[in-house]
Design goal:
The protein is of the alpha+beta class. It has two helices and five strands. The N and C termini lie far apart (31 Å).
């Protein structure tokens, strides 16, 4: 299976997972010139900005390592663009998350990791 296809399937799986936790999905692949947030969802008074990694354990390192300083800064900037476009979101607490989909289709949800 191609990398893009695997990533797309992982994002769909992650969306279903978030919905099972009573999140409302607002955006998938919210893109700006400087970056992207894979899934933006809302639950209660929290706006969840989630990076999805469909990851094989044999890669030799944890997907958290992909959320390096540059990636985190880009996600924050994209979040700020979202607030400019939809000021009604200003009152919501942001949460930057990682959703790790394993090769066995297990979901590991790391909430508010930065």
């Amino acid at each position: 299976m191609k990398k893009g296809t695997i990533g797309k399937k992982g994002e769909e799986f992650a969306s279903f997972y978030l919905q099972s936790l009573e999140h409302t999905i607002l955006f998938s692949n919210y893109r700006k010139k400087i970056g992207e947030i894979d899934i933006i969802s809302i639950k209660n008074d929290t706006l969840h900005c989630s990076e999805v990694k469909t990851w094989n354990e044999r890669f030799g390192f944890h997907p958290k390592e992909c959320l390096h300083a540059t990636k985190r800064a880009r996600m924050r900037k994209v979040y700020l663009y979202l607030l400019q476009e939809i000021p009604a979101f200003y009152h919501l607490t942001p949460s930057f998350n990682l959703i790790h989909i394993t090769e066995k289709k297990e979901v590991r949800f790391y909430s508010s990791i930065f």
